[in-house]
Amino acid sequence: MARKKVAILTCGGTPAMSLSPTLKVKYNGPELINKFPSLETLADLEVDEVFSNKDSSEMKPQDWQIITERAHHYVMRDDISGIVVIHGTDTMEDTLMAVALMIRNLNKPIVFTGTQVPAEKDMHHAEKLFYDSVLTAANSGINDVVLCFSGDETSTFTNLYRASTAFKFSTHKYDAFRSWDGPIVAIVDGKFKFSPQYNSHQYKITKPTEFPLLKTNLELNVGYANVVIGTDYGEQIISNIITPREEVIPQDKVTPRNRGYILGTNTDGYDLLSHTRDAEAKATLKALEAGLVVGVVSNDGSPVILANGIDIQLREKGAVPLGRMNFRKALVKLSWVLGQTQDNEEARRMLAYDYCGEIPPNSFDTEMKPFHHTD
Q1: What is the tens place of the pLDDT at every residue in 342-352?
Q2: Lower Cβ count inside 10 Å, N or C end of the chain?
Q3: Are residues 198 and 249 in the same domain?
Q4: CA distance 3 to 5
């Protein structure tokens, strides 16, 4: 049987950096991969350097588009079984979400990974992540965008997380990522141990019958307002998102008015805006009446959104409840949705639609049972 082939896209970041205090990039893409000959025991490799000297904290939406277009190129090649993307961890969760949305009808795995320290500082950490990522790209059989990262602090096994739920919770731990809301995909420890929830009807990723499509347009005029109950600044935050104040941004520098924003709040178990200040709710109503697309997320895990009191008014005006969706994922999704259509009604329907597991089915009802390495 012919050996499988995996494309590896390198994007600079921590894995390629030196141990010097300045953390300058030391290895280009091929040099980095050549440090780990074990990878070639899994598949034939084609290394493609997307960025050579870019810290992930510098990633912009335009970079998401470049990475997605390059990944799509390999998705369309019949000789490629899967794609690995080596990316810095600081903005990994944003790029993951963007790629998962921008490639529709994905028919092979795209596996992101990175490292918490330069590869040359801890070769075991880097090799385990790269090895399991190539293994996943070559042999997992999934049709999804996932993150492969350490499952414990010694990198003895790795977890696969869906692009739509993976988020970074630690800047120093090796097991730096978690699933925001929903199951992990699998545990990788020489073989794949898939989560029962991921394999369920709700999450199972089947091979699409349609052609993989590339949809990279983004609307960059979007914002995020985090409103905390009991504070008095939420109204001003929202007002500034709707129309920037001249004293904040000079009139000749004002960008076009934001087309939409994500509203997040800590609800303490209540409906999102029923227990916030009236002024904040009125500011949101004003935004909706002005034609903005508004998505609403709960930051504290409260499951019910926009069901009572003034929340009903907000829903009737077009606010889109997004449950416990991660606010960064929600903002990326809003940017993508508004890049696909100029019709706000269609945009609201798209924002509410679950494209890749970003709105977990338990987002509005009960907790999902965790899945552990020892299960």
Answers
A1: 999 999 999 99
A2: N
A3: no
A4: 7
